[in-house]
Structure formats: C-alpha cells, structure tokens
Fold each of these.
Amino acid sequence: MKVLIVESDIDWRNTLSAHVGELSYEVSVCSSLGQARDFLKSRQPDILMTDIGLPDGSLLPELASLRQHFPSMGIVILTAATRLEDKVRCMSDGADYYLVKPLKLEEVSATLTALSRRMKTAPHQSTSESEKWTFNRKSGRLASNGVVAQQFTDKESTALAALLQSPNYPVSHTQLFDLLRSGAEEYDAHRIDALIYRVRQKLRSLQESPMQIRNIYGEGFLMLRRSSSVDIVLES
C-alpha cells in the first residue's frame, strides 16, 4: 500500500516516514499544503497521513473535498490540535482517524494496521449516473430526481452523512460518538445503535431504497448502495 505523509516538522517527518517504511508501506512525503496538492493532482495514495496546520495553510477547509474526490483513500489526521471542535469537524468531513501529537509510533502502527484491514475487506463499489439521489445534510432530506423521498432528524442526518462520507470503510461507534455528542447530551453504544436502527427503518420504508446499512462485526457500520447504478450525492 502507498502512504503519503504530509508533515512540516522535518524531524518528525523523517521519523514517521522511516517507521512507516519499515512496516512495508511505500512512502512518499510532502512538507506543505502546496506540495500535497501537486502530489494529489497526479497520484492517489492508498492512505494519507497529514497534519492539518501546515506552513502555507490549513488542510481543514479542504478535507471534505479530498474525501469527495478520493472516496477510497484512507485519511489519518496527525495533529497537536486538541479542541473537540477540530476533531468533530475532521471526522465529519471524512477523516478515518484523528490522532493527537505527541503520539507513540506504536499507535501509528496500530492505526495503519486497522485502516489497511478495513480497506482490504471493504466491498468494491463502482457508480454510474443512471440513478441519481441526493442527501442534504442540513435539511435532512433524501431526494430522488428532486423529489423528497424521506426526511431525517438532525442527529439521524449526522449519522447518515458520516456513513455516506465513508463509502468503503465502516464507521465505528467511537467516531459516531464524537460526531453526535454536544453540550450535556451524551451518547453511548446503545443510543447509537438505536439511532442507526431508526435510520435503517426510514431507509427500509422506501419502496426502493438506494442504500442499506450493514453491521461489520468489531468495526462499526458500513453504508452499501443497492447497486452500482445508484449515485448518491451528499450536499452540505
């Protein structure tokens, strides 16, 4: 597997690239946002490991676009930013993992192993434009050819958007927990399971649902399109 590391600190970049290389990954490195953009114009790594605060700008505003353009690419954020808002935004916009510096190389190894395993076992899905659906995250409306087919609550929309933004990898309870908790409201595994159940029931109520949610044991939830002819566009 090919891994692109985007990191401005030369010592950490060299340490990280050497370690990842020892794990038998093919490693490329960039030191800035501009270099990463140029790299991704011509090549797609299997996994992107990147800081969000880079010398020439922040990756955060571009994360959702990266996920849209590279839906099968694993994205691991390595950052010193500890604010919950940053983590929630990164996970919501398509990151698979959010690791806070300083971190141990063993944590990097475990993350890459888990992500690689998910990528290898995720079903391959190709899409065409023969059947168009849209899901608007803010309004909670799932529509086909402009006609609203189902309405979801705010929390249901958050969960459904997370699943749609991770088309090839399961979304874990932990990831959903980070996205859903706000203020004094707390979510545990049972509440998340109940929420996913409600989303499932609404999808099943459609005469011909474009997608289904599958439980992946030990990993979380995976969104599957009904067929390769279904194209679902996520609108923010």
Amino acid sequence: MHCYSLPTKKELLLSSVIAFVGAGGKTTALYTLAMHHASNGKRCIITTTTHMQYPAAEFGPLYTDSSQVTFTNNKHICVCGLDCGEQNVTKSDGTLLSIHKMTGLPQEQFVQLYSLCDVLLVEADGARMLPLKVPASHEPVIPSGTTTVVVCAGLDSIGKPLSSVCFRSEYALSLLQQYAGWHTEDANRCVVPETVAQLLYYGYIAVLQKQKNREHTRIVALCNKADSYILKEQGQQCVDALHRLVAKHAAGSFGGSYITSLQKGESVYVQY
C-alpha cells in the first residue's frame, strides 16, 4: 500500500482527509458523504490518487490545476483531477461499458488541496466496477495524513462465484486458502457473508492496522448495496463476522461498520 508524501503540519490541520478503498460503490459513497458535508457548509474537494469516474455535470467543472479551485456560496463541492477520456470496463455480468474517467493531479498539486478545503475526499483504489476486491502490493494509494479510511464491499457479490465478482480474485483466493480453508479449485465457489468479511479484514483492515503511520487513522467498513430485506440480513451477517475477526485479532483502530443502501438513501451504523 503506497502513500502520497506527507503534507506540512499546517496543511494537515486545515482539512479532514477521507480515503475510500475496496469495491462496491466507492464513488457513490464518496459523493454522498461530500453532499452531506456540503449541506452543512463544509468546503469539499473530491479527487483521486488512481482513477475514478468523470464528474457529472452538476459537480463540474473539473479543476485540472489546484490554483483554479473556487468555492462560492452556492458551490461547496469541487472535483479536481485530469481528464483521461473513455475507458472500456467489463462488468461482472460480462457487459462491456465505456466509462469517462479522470485521474489524479500531480503530487505537487495534490498536496496543495489540503489547505483549500474543510474535507478532502479521495478515491484511492480501483475495482473495475466489481463488488469485491483484494489489493495488490502497490494498492491502495492512500494519501498521507488520511484521518479516515472507508473500506467498501458490495453485498450484491453474495451468492455469486468469487472469480466473477472480485477484482484480483487470484489474490482473494490466496487469502481464503490461507485463512478460511479454501482450496485452489474453489475459484468459482460462491461468496457468502463470511467471505465478504474475510476479504474486508484480511485484504484491507488487518494490513492497514499494521502500518506504523496509521495509528491514529480511523478505519471503518462499508457494506453497500443492501437494497433488499435479504441483502440487509446478509449485510448484518457480514458485519457480525467482521467484528468477530477484529475482536479475535485485537489490533489497531477500528471504528465500526455501516450497512448501506445508497440507492435508497439508507444507512445503518453498527458500532464495534
């Protein structure tokens, strides 16, 4: 897991930095939280350290230089990054989509964003629109000074073969072999709530908790797409399993879990 260079202490004090990692609705969750903060008068900047979807017209224009960022009484959200055009993405159902993407600003400009806003929201991971992910060694790209890391997973992965719903499924299978008794031939085994919990914990949370520069970073889990009664129940099972794993290993700062249906505007916080 890589980091952007640490900004100055003064810059850190001026903003709250929230990084979204994992899969299953990071961008929607990020914009939802930005709109919440903006409705309370907070100046929010949305950006990425990897790639993310180009902003909708209502959030434009895209600021390609940190010196251009401008807030007004009616505009509390600014999106910063570089246009990288259309990219083809294959969804878990095999559908090929062409998505307009943006990438992050150069590091020297990224660091300037800290002092320009009250809340800096960063998409720090990519998942090719799949609901689950286990990162490679160079991922995610979390900015130094991050105050909260939101680790996301999509509950719509449950009941489907791991290989079809998880980005870097080979890494996921390796973790599940190591910690959950899976076997090499289980690549097409169906995901259950406990699987989601295991990938959230061993893929992200346990790694983050061991990093020396994360002692004061709040880590929360977001189980998204609880868009039906059954998925809500499975979300609760996932959170219960995740909290058992956190308690078993008793390491680092974990701030609890959210079961959300961003589609319906619903969110339940489950305290650890």
Amino acid sequence: MSDSSTNEAQSGVNSELSDATQNRILRFTIGVALATFLAAWIDWPLAFVAPIFTAKFLFEKRVLHIDIVYELLLA
C-alpha cells in the first residue's frame, strides 16, 4: 500500500468525526481510564464495576458539569 493511499484513508476517517464527537470520545476514554485506575489504586473491592459506573454517567451526560463530578464522587 502506498503512502498516498494511507494518507487518504486517514484523512477520510478524521473528516467523518466532528470536533464535538472527538471531544466526547476523548472525554469518555480518559474518564473511564482514570476511574479504573483510581479504583484499583485505592484497592476498592468493587473496582471491577468502576468502568461501568463511570461509563453510565459520562455517556448519559452530553456536557460535563461540576454536578456530574460530584455525583461520581458520591457513587
């Protein structure tokens, strides 16, 4: 496969996702990874459900507010 066809394929993928969608994907990925790391770091007995709780909150909420962070801390 040539370099030009690889570049065209990559630019096609990037042009399909808007900036808002890319931000939501990045927020979701970082949020779930951070929650999983923190749950394992503090040795929480239910650490295996931390990604599920976090994903539920982050997926349902379109915009991140301080209230969402507070809800996650309470959970």
